[in-house]
Amino acid sequence: MPDIAVGGNRSALTTIKGDYDTFANGLDNSRRPNNFGKVKRGRYTGNGTGAATTFTVTHGLNFTPTRVSPTPRNAASAIGAWVDPATITSTQFVISTASAIASGTGNVQYDWVASK
After folding, report:
1. Alpha-carbon gap, residue 103 to 50, rounded angstroms
2. For 33-56, what is the mean pLDDT?
3. Torsion of CA 66, 81, 93, 100, to 10 degrees
4. What's the whole-model pTM score?
5. Largest Cα–Cα distance of the chain, in whole Å?
């Protein structure tokens, strides 16, 4: 698929395979005013244990992000989440939560945006 140019900005739309889910059009390689880095999106689904407060995400990006922002996709995950920059590597990052998410299959659900 060719790049799309809008007002001098370029964007390549791609389908990526995330850690557990496919996130259609999940790669947004656009350059935006006042943000000259890459911005990419993904999705994470994991299992709550009732004790765990960290969830490792294998991001599959072609760069090491400097910032990742998680957004909960369900009520169980809406308990305050963040990514400590110290946990970001070229292949993974860790989502931390303010408290443990209840035990369940597929009940830990986040969309995330990574930027460089």
Report:
1. 5
2. 86
3. 160
4. 0.69
5. 48
Tokens of 73: 């996709």
Q: What is the dihedral of CA 85, 71, 46, 76, to 10 degrees?
A: 130
For residue 87, pLDDT over 60 is answered with yes
Which residue range is the domain that position 107 belongs to? 4-115
Query: Pick the residue with more confidence: 25 or 89?
Result: 89
CATH of the domain at 66: 2.60.40
Tracing tokens 């970001």 back to the chain, one arrives at: 88
CB environment 42-67: b (16+ within 10 A), e (fewer): bbbbbebeeeeeebebebebeeebee
Total domains, the chain = 1
